[in-house]
Amino acid sequence: MTLLEELELRGFIHQCTDSDKLDSTLKEELITFYIGFDCTAKSLHVGSLMQIMMMRIFQKYGHTPIVLIGEGTTKIGDPSGKDQSRKMLSSEDIKLNSKNLTKVFDIYLDNTLKNKPIYSNNADWLENINYINFLRDYGKHFTINKMLSFDSVKLRLDREQSLSFVEFNYMILQAYDYLELHNRHNCKLQIGGSDQWGNIVNGIDLIRRDSSKEVYGLTTPLLTNAKNEKMGKTVDGAVWLNEDMLTPYDYWQFWRNVDDRDVFRFLKLFTDIDIAEINDLEDKKDLDINSIKVLLANAATEMLHGKDNAILSEKTANDVFKNEGSSKNLPSINVKFDKNIDIYLNEQIVGVGFTSSKSEARKLIKNSGVKINRVLVSDELKTLSINDFDNNKELLVSVGKKKHFIIKLLD
Fold first, then answer.
1. CA-closest candidate to residue 207, choices 193, 228, 186
2. Are residues 288 and 360 in the same domain?
3. Parallel, antiparallel, or unpaired: how do β-strands 237-238 and 233-234 relate?
4. How many domains, in total, are found in the chain?
């Protein structure tokens, strides 16, 4: 099986600028390729995992990934796929986000190989550009007519939504990134999401005009679930990849609770399980879909958080849901009774981080979204009493169907 064949079978390929020539190049030589990640948050989320898995597979076949951290382009804001301008971040926030982003690549990519990942930052060249010289040397290769035809621009204009001149420049800067990486590392392929197609083509054209060299572009499909919801977002917020923003248990639960129709597609995209093994599982007539969901949750969690956390997450889920008990592995919060102070349930929900405000927690309680020891709570101003705790001085709080924590009573 060739690299492109595996990518096709797993569902990674949406568009390619010249698949036949790229296939020949990948068979004949080991190349350097890149994917860019802007620093818009402290962590990447599941929506970026498709590109990260692409890098992982390319590296497995011997090719060298460049992780381009976009400190420079983050200051501009990518209009691709957006209805409105991104919020402008401070330089300090961008640098902090940049530092946090690299953590996840150290997990998914192998730094011990000869083709270990190259980490690059486009602030190194973009922040030192002489604007007049840049326009003279590279602006001449971009026509307004063509730039207006790209979806990232056309979508905003068709909806009569403003597009700033700053954002309009983004595609030129991304094209220049590709040229810079080609000159520095002989980079021959850029990979991105489907909304990046126009930007990638711009970069290929710029390199061809500047050096007459042939390079390639590849995009992944827009990833949605069976309900046509964009991956990476849930009703509870983004599914973050950094552990300090989402616990391994909550990450495990995300994969365990995917729609039945998505399970095998996600096994192909987000695990290292052999494609033939996945197909064999899918062909089974007496299939227990819930056991396959556990397989997906364990494999995805082990890859990001390690085997111990995957095992612990499954055990915690079994303790809570199957064995009708709580679990010592759940998040916990300690309380101590004082006759002069009431202990409100909504404050404990905020304290453990399951909501951002007491009013949000009260709303959940009012809408029948909170249980204590599996008994629905109806009083949005519920205060805890000694009688709420079991013999172990603990009580289990369930917020929605997937979030649980323990309140422990101190003497």
1. 186
2. no
3. antiparallel
4. 3
